[in-house]
């Protein structure tokens, strides 16, 4: 992973992002509801970008935190916001396009194959 950029956000290339999420690692998907419903990473947590400020208490400060969106712009802005509030977020460069492009699973809420 690269060190923090000029905004204080660490960037991770898709190969550096885990594929399993749980108690110690969180993948926070900040895309809109319709994007999430089309397909997301298995085990990701959904929190649309606009809801993040009101839902900070739902983000585990002890877990390693990766933030993802469609291509990496929105997640970078959310990661910057979180970093300013004491979190240590890692932005996923390339977003869900990179995730899917790397052949990683994309699912819908009912567990079937999804799309990005």
UniProtKB/TrEMBL annotation:
PROSITE patterns: RHODANESE_3. The keyword Transferase applies. Pfam families: Rhodanese. InterPro entries: GlpE_sulfurtransferase, Rhodanese-like_dom, Rhodanese-like_dom_sf. One of its GO terms (molecular function) is transferase activity. Keywords: Transferase. The keyword DNA damage does not apply. Gene3D superfamilies: Rhodanese-like domain. SMART domains: RHOD (SM00450). This is Sulfurtransferase. It comes from Mycolicibacterium duvalii.
């Amino acid at each position: 992973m690269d060190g923090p950029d000029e905004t204080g956000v660490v960037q991770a290339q898709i190969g550096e992002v885990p594929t399993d999420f749980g108690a110690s690692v969180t993948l926070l998907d900040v895309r809109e509801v319709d994007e999430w419903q089309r397909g997301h990473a298995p085990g990701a947590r959904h929190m649309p970008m606009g809801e993040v400020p009101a839902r900070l208490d739902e983000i585990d400060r002890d877990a390693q935190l990766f933030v993802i969106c469609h291509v990496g712009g929105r997640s970078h802005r959310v990661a910057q916001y979180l970093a300013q509030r004491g979190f240590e977020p890692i932005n996923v460069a390339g977003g869900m396009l990179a995730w899917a492009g790397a052949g990683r699973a994309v699912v819908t809420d009912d567990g079937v194959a999804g799309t990005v």
